[in-house]
From TrEMBL:
Keywords: Membrane, Transmembrane, Transmembrane helix
PANTHER family named in the record: SUGAR PHOSPHATE TRANSPORTER DOMAIN-CONTAINING PROTEIN
Membrane-crossing segments per the record: 58-86, 92-113, 125-146, 158-175, 182-203, 223-244
Disordered: region residues: 1-24
Protein's organism: Trichoplax adhaerens
Keyword Transmembrane included in the entry's annotation: yes
Protein name as catalogued: Uncharacterized protein
Keyword Transmembrane recorded: yes
């Protein structure tokens, strides 16, 4: 006597159960019932796929928003942490705190200035941008010396002509002119946040120059702050379209996994 396989035993049990429930059921009725059961399974599978598509749509939207938000807010947060680490490396003394307050105030004023320049200039030709810089230079020539005289006469900051390091001052003025030129040009070509974070690289560069010329220690905390600034700047270099593509690839991976789970034989039990 041949040994029955598991599939044949299951088929016999299924036939007996159907014949027990429906004694008069023939093969035609059995085929109709199996077709109905198959239709129910397909509807169940389509419902699962529909829910997965809706969940994936919501997931894509959330991931895209996170990618776009992280590209801006995340870069700003990392840059702030990097600057704080540089401040912590030098200690939080009274002079340092005053310097940090002045730096924050300067950054806020500079941010308003750069955003205003971007709104007013927009995408202008190089000639118009150069004309604007020339106007700023003329105004600085006639107005910038007034605070110097006021501070000198009040005794807050006394400057003697014989003690002024003219060589260093002229080099500083030259780089300041170049900085203003490339600053406005960069705002016109890119956007203010990109230029602002790029300007923060002056902090680690100054620390490196101090370490080389004045033998000041470039500690591990400053190295970590420099890395955070580089990462923040690199985030801004990622285009929004690329961030969206990355999020879509991640979502497609999740969809493929969900599709494999739907076709798992356990769902048909």
């Amino acid at each position: 006597m041949e040994k029955k396989t598991q599939s044949s035993v299951l088929a016999e049990n299924h036939t007996k159960s159907n014949s027990g429930r429906h004694p008069s059921m023939n093969s035609y009725d059995l085929a109709i019932e199996l077709r109905n059961n198959d239709g129910l399974l397909r509807e169940k599978q389509q419902l699962k796929i529909s829910l997965s598509v809706k969940e994936a749509t919501v997931g894509i939207t959330v991931v895209i928003l996170i990618a776009i938000t992280f590209s801006l807010a995340g870069a700003v947060i990392l840059s702030i942490i990097g600057v704080v680490l540089f401040t912590a490396a030098d200690g939080f003394g009274t002079i340092t705190i005053i310097g940090v307050i002045l730096a924050v105030a300067s950054s806020i004023i500079s941010a308003f200035y750069r955003v205003s320049v971007k709104l007013i200039i927009g995408d202008r030709p190089l000639l118009q941008v150069s004309f604007l810089i020339s106007i700023i230079g003329v105004l600085s020539l006639f107005l910038s010396w007034i605070p110097v005289i006021i501070l000198s006469n009040t005794g807050v900051d006394i400057n003697l002509w014989s003690t002024i390091p003219w060589g260093t001052l002229l080099v500083t003025i030259t780089f300041n002119i170049l900085n203003n030129f490339f600053l406005i040009l960069g705002i016109a070509v890119t956007y203010p946040i990109f230029v602002s974070l790029g300007g923060l690289f002056g902090i680690p560069l100054n620390s490196i120059i101090d370490a080389v010329t004045r033998n000041l220690a470039f500690t591990e905390v400053k190295i970590l702050g420099t890395i955070l600034l580089i990462v923040a700047f690199a985030i801004l270099l990622i285009p929004t379209g690329t961030a969206i593509k990355i999020s879509q690839k991640f979502t497609n991976f999740i969809l493929c996994k969900a599709s494999r789970d739907l076709h798992d034989p356990q769902d048909y039990n």
